[in-house]
Amino acid sequence: MIPRYSRPDMVAIWEPQTRFRIWFEIEAHACDAQAALGVIPKANAEAVWKAKDVTFNVARIDEIEAVTKHDVIAFLTHLAEIIGNDEARFVHQGMTSSDVLDTTLNIQLTRAADLLMAGLDRVLAALKTRAYEHKDTVRIGRSHGIHAEPTTMGLTFARFYAEMARNRARLENARAEIATGAISGAVGTFANIDPAVEEHVCKMMGLTPEPISTQVIPRDRHAMFFATLGVIASSIENIAIEIRHMQRTEVLEAEEFFSPGQKGSSAMPHKRNPVLTENLTGLARLVRMSVTPALENVALWHERDISHSSVERAIGPDTTITLDFALHRLAGVVEKLVIYPENMLKNMNKFKGLIMSQRVLLALTQAGVSREDSYRLVQRNAMKVWEQGADFKTELLADPEVTAALSREEIEEKFDLGYHTKHVDTIFARVFGS
Amino acid sequence: MIPRYSRPDMVAIWEPQTRFRIWFEIEAHACDAQAALGVIPKANAEAVWKAKDVTFNVARIDEIEAVTKHDVIAFLTHLAEIIGNDEARFVHQGMTSSDVLDTTLNIQLTRAADLLMAGLDRVLAALKTRAYEHKDTVRIGRSHGIHAEPTTMGLTFARFYAEMARNRARLENARAEIATGAISGAVGTFANIDPAVEEHVCKMMGLTPEPISTQVIPRDRHAMFFATLGVIASSIENIAIEIRHMQRTEVLEAEEFFSPGQKGSSAMPHKRNPVLTENLTGLARLVRMSVTPALENVALWHERDISHSSVERAIGPDTTITLDFALHRLAGVVEKLVIYPENMLKNMNKFKGLIMSQRVLLALTQAGVSREDSYRLVQRNAMKVWEQGADFKTELLADPEVTAALSREEIEEKFDLGYHTKHVDTIFARVFGS
Amino acid sequence: MIPRYSRPDMVAIWEPQTRFRIWFEIEAHACDAQAALGVIPKANAEAVWKAKDVTFNVARIDEIEAVTKHDVIAFLTHLAEIIGNDEARFVHQGMTSSDVLDTTLNIQLTRAADLLMAGLDRVLAALKTRAYEHKDTVRIGRSHGIHAEPTTMGLTFARFYAEMARNRARLENARAEIATGAISGAVGTFANIDPAVEEHVCKMMGLTPEPISTQVIPRDRHAMFFATLGVIASSIENIAIEIRHMQRTEVLEAEEFFSPGQKGSSAMPHKRNPVLTENLTGLARLVRMSVTPALENVALWHERDISHSSVERAIGPDTTITLDFALHRLAGVVEKLVIYPENMLKNMNKFKGLIMSQRVLLALTQAGVSREDSYRLVQRNAMKVWEQGADFKTELLADPEVTAALSREEIEEKFDLGYHTKHVDTIFARVFGS
Amino acid sequence: MIPRYSRPDMVAIWEPQTRFRIWFEIEAHACDAQAALGVIPKANAEAVWKAKDVTFNVARIDEIEAVTKHDVIAFLTHLAEIIGNDEARFVHQGMTSSDVLDTTLNIQLTRAADLLMAGLDRVLAALKTRAYEHKDTVRIGRSHGIHAEPTTMGLTFARFYAEMARNRARLENARAEIATGAISGAVGTFANIDPAVEEHVCKMMGLTPEPISTQVIPRDRHAMFFATLGVIASSIENIAIEIRHMQRTEVLEAEEFFSPGQKGSSAMPHKRNPVLTENLTGLARLVRMSVTPALENVALWHERDISHSSVERAIGPDTTITLDFALHRLAGVVEKLVIYPENMLKNMNKFKGLIMSQRVLLALTQAGVSREDSYRLVQRNAMKVWEQGADFKTELLADPEVTAALSREEIEEKFDLGYHTKHVDTIFARVFGS
């Protein structure tokens, strides 16, 4: 985790304090269930809740762990210090450490997913606002980086919205993947604990019981989770690349927001760097890099080995924190993106009307001119634009062979931008609903 | 694609003949829609269907492409040769090549998903059969490769079943991701073609219209598709690793099926190698390697660049063909896996009864023996097993300090395997339904 | 392997005929060594060379393999058909299949490395030629996609040259990594064959004996090999991205070569797409995707498992063929790249002189103007350029506060491009030698 | 960075204090060079060294950065606070931030490489010691996890030694890759600073001047660096997997060291988990995951974009710290690995003598028995071993058809382990030198 690329809410999920709090809740709910089954005395179960509002002493737990070399035992020892040794003696009965650890990891990932969902929602809201704002702002569409046909800035935002809406649905699936818990014992047979305990704990913690676990919750779930985050990161990169292109000096159709006081911007007004979207490009790589180790984590030996653990200690926090930060950074960029419609027009007209050459070609053939002749007519006028900077429409109107086939109105019509934007509302309805 | 790791059905999806057939259908349906809109004459639309049952001449199309340097134009030229130049003159009107190419890719991937689904179903059926067959076949559960507590072979199959059932659900999502089509023109604005054409073509081809496309269908869909295949591959590896472990000489709890006539197996009966599951381990790596380039394909420049294309030419066929082959190879391995229950028992008893030491320890403390004393008692008997090969239960029964605390019946009970298998039916009900 | 992205020379390395030829040579040299040791009769060793100029019948070998289910045995059977059963009876004695297979793979990879080296050399030659050709062609240097300070097109080529020269050195290392052979038996102990055989075979085949092998040659070598190809691919992407940027409509500082006859280019002269470099971007992803599975192949179980084999069947040919094709495609692009120096100047002057604002600012402070005043002076003139399209130098020369601090000559000097190019020769000397 | 997987020396390299110290040294040496060139006064250059032994106040620098939003400026401001504003006024003259930042990163990576080298050396020393210790400790070699032919434990260590020795050579190359520095200005043209400054700074900091840079040092160097670390990590996994296999209950040929006092080990002596090598397996995945983003970092836009920066902020420290920790953990495991030669023999003899069946088969055919008969003879005796637990040699000696062909001595000889170990010294000489 890199502090500068993190937000406090997500960081908090991964702090020791939060982890111990979750451990406590799992243990306390498990005691309740055990008491209900008559396995342990009700009084002992109730006593555990004395620690309900306690802030656990992380330093003290670390101190104990330094001796016991076991994190869960250290915590339980500390818990006993709080609620009393005698009261605590049934805590954790029949459970293994992994019951607590694996269920906790999934709770943390589930909460992380909720925060990511909020980040996605902010991105979606920003994209929708900007899409409607620029629904009819015409700009040139580019394939291969080359001018193709006109489109609108609103459509650009709308397609990013559609992509992020898909990511939202994917994240919901991914959240469901890891919203499971397991209290099933050393190899998952419930030999030492009744399945009812698992059911109760999961219910109270907002999880589904893992249908079949083996000390660990199966890691295909986590693989799917991180793979999904990798896809979301790639979409962030997709938007970032678009903005970086728009901001490059020769294009200048948009700029990341610069606060007026930002030093240097007015003495070197051309030198405003899209550093936020460049940063997002890098953050996307960081999020994506967790996908492969998460996939490699799936194949554990027999009922479990612990090779996955170190991987998750790193990518659990790092990947969710980075993606959370990236989503909000992206949202901020989109919300405040400075857009230059006039530059969009200027760029579109760089080769005065040339992007309409294909429509003219088609019109000529449809007007009965042979394919070869149509091509020749378009070509000779196009070359004047390309080589001498002439205006395409003007040249066409001045070419008697052209005007013999097409009327002025027909030629004018080929340069009508409305031709290209006529279905924008249809597309918006598809993307945003009516 | 490596012929030895391929099945004809999946290979067929990616053959030129199939591709041209799909192109034809897209073009023909588009003509129907255009005719319905009154854009082209009905007779021309109908004429296209003359090629309905024609086997396209791939060599001829390649020949034309060698001249035109354009695959779609080459195909259209060949189509015109079949249905007549005049009849063909409205085919493809208003469309761009990508309309055809991208929709076709998604149709191929959708069909591939259907085949993969069938493969998964075969794996699931095999796992379920073997799970019920060995529901009560006791074997030792292992954490860290070390004996832990007893479980059953049926539970092992059941957890792989549950994992593959999750993969089936994921694959359904992945299929939905790429079951879209687009006929939206050069930058996706429908400038030259009515959205109704897209709707009709998609409906006839079993697709959903892409809500917003930009010459290309957005690549986050394909990234999610390949990421999902990567997860499935990791689950295949998971099962493969389990079987490889079971077959290793010292464990020998299972073997891949050897046909009786297979040379060498009886002169060297110990030398039966788990080559199929080792191969599956490698194939899993091959499937997974498509995930990163698929993620890198998402961020295209502006409305599209063509960097994704070469990647998809490779991973489209290769990844689906490899995974399809791997699923069926896995199914075959599971269906015919030779299981040795007697070796499972032999392995479990390698350290005669020692795996029960923890239950005995717990029983002693619950019988009122202090924690320290309990530990000492277990330890001194355990060491006899470990160092001298004694039998743990026999030693305990002969230890007066132990028998002072626990009756013979209580000690015997600690070695009862039923204690560990009592919830197997519960877990099976969770996994397979009641 | 995708035919359209392949060159015949590299494809040939991976064809069955080549593989069998290498197998033959290994077996024949091994026989010579065995005969020299007195292990087999000299006459039998000599007889093997009867097949020296034979074209092996791949179909016949496949036919035998269909029965024996073993590729090496099938080959040896076919070899015996050629040289006689009796003469052939000592061939392969004391060897295991892997001795032949692993040594062959390394020979193929070594030959592939040689071809890649030739590809790199062609790229280097092209970059050097273009670097000198445009050593003094001034263009704007861009950081963050934003105009920064002037540089030259020659420096751009020169840095790509330096990068590719590093890649050449890396490829030499990578070649050395996999130029080893092993004839060491079932677990690498030479139990059944003298190390002298390995030495002789390796010497004759241009390899170094693997110091210690275990039926297989250790896979860290192959991991390093493919990792190196991944780095080279990333450098190809680096150059491809630069060219794609240069060709985008708004920049147009260079274009991939278009043959004059190429259809469409003159009727739509603006629509020349950088499809070759876009393709290279995708091919780079394909090459890179082999790195992870190659790394995963390193950890084989004990003396060997065969999980690596399927991976190598794919990435061995696919990765080298793709990279070979990419290098030559890149070389072609660089050799024929159409460069527009006048557009470079036009772009550089987009914001008339503004890129010199920092030099002016520095000059003012060095002339004794306070930092605040200097900033204010630069700012007010810069804003006229930015907002009204004025010329920066003209404005400065007309600003009495500026001219009070700086003479006309001093101001003029700040706009001298020679200031930026004065060390180009130094850099060229570093890169290309004096 | 995960504290529990880190060592202080490597962590120190990445601490702010170290970074600022390096920045200081770069700036101070640059001033010396500028003074020597006569660009700045000698006195000012000398004054900078007043901060030579100062511990920079990180909190203060952070405080300034909070205002200036620029880390290098914040540092320079703090430096001026120490050496005096007037004395400091020529510091950094002609340089850009990246000159300092990129050179610093490479210094940190170079130092990291030195620490990694020390880690590798410790691993190498441990492997060599254990190799010689167990040079003649016979164990069964396994292919596919199945018993093959005897080898020795010393050969296992020797092959890991050879692999790690290769890694050492690779790391030397990787270190050379990133041991370069650049002080070349905004786009690398040395417009504002003489190349002599770069030369001097590099010389003093132990670096080579980057032949051609563009504000940034080219990232193919870093890609190669991290790719090399990925290969080393895979070798760590390779050794870890071997040890995990050796420790599994059924094999038990070795165990990670357990301190005698380690709780639980004697009451459950079978339950000693190879947690260190499992952890190493996970750490290897963490190190490897940096390779792909490092490769993606190569293709920066034009002279530089900053997308690489966030990636390096993460993988720079995380990857080197994790690998450093892993190397020392591995060294510790190897140094103290508890090896059980008697279990190796026991495992080898699991199928009493059966692993020699192939040698017997060969001997029979060489003694003139037909291939079919030889096979039949071996088979019928082998099956008695396999099915009834008989001893292979005993059965052969009791089989008159066998003894008719082979004398007792000849049969005995086939079971001589010396046959398999006769070349161990040769291999050791190859690996360790004579």
What features would you highlight for this structure?
homotetramer; two-stranded parallel sheet
Structural account:
The structure is a homotetramer of 434-residue chains. With 434 residues, chain A is mostly helical. In chain A, 64% of the residues lie in helices and 5% in strands. Chain A has helices at 8-13, 16-36, 42-48, 58-68, 71-83, 97-133, 153-178, 195-205, 220-247, 275-288, 291-296, 307-336, 341-348, 357-366, 371-388, 392-397, 400-405, 408-414, 418-421, 424-432; strands at residues 138-143, 146-152, 180-181, 208-209, 254-255, 338-339. In chain A, the strands form three sheets. In chain A, strands 1-2 form a two-stranded antiparallel sheet. In chain A, strand 1 and strand 2 form a beta hairpin. Chain A starts with 7 loop residues before the first helix and ends with a helix. Chains in contact: A-B, A-C, A-D, B-C, B-D, C-D. At the A-B interface, strand 1, strand 2, helix 7, helix 9 and helix 11 of A face strand 1, strand 2, helix 7, helix 9 and helix 11 of B. Chains A, B, C, D: Its EC number is 4.3.2.2.
List the helices and strands and how they pair.
The structure is a homotetramer of 434-residue chains.
Chain A: H1 8-13, H2 16-36, H3 42-48, H4 58-68, H5 71-83, H6 97-133, E1 138-143, E2 146-152, H7 153-178, E3 180-181, H8 195-205, E4 208-209, H9 220-247, E5 254-255, H10 275-288, H11 291-296, H12 307-336, E6 338-339, H13 341-348, H14 357-366, H15 371-388, H16 392-397, H17 400-405, H18 408-414, H19 418-421, H20 424-432
Parallel strand pairs in A: 3-4
Antiparallel strand pairs in A: 1-2, 5-6
Keywords (chains A, B, C, D): Lyase, Purine biosynthesis
Family (chains A, B, C, D): Belongs to the lyase 1 family. Adenylosuccinate lyase subfamily.
EC number (chains A, B, C, D): 4.3.2.2
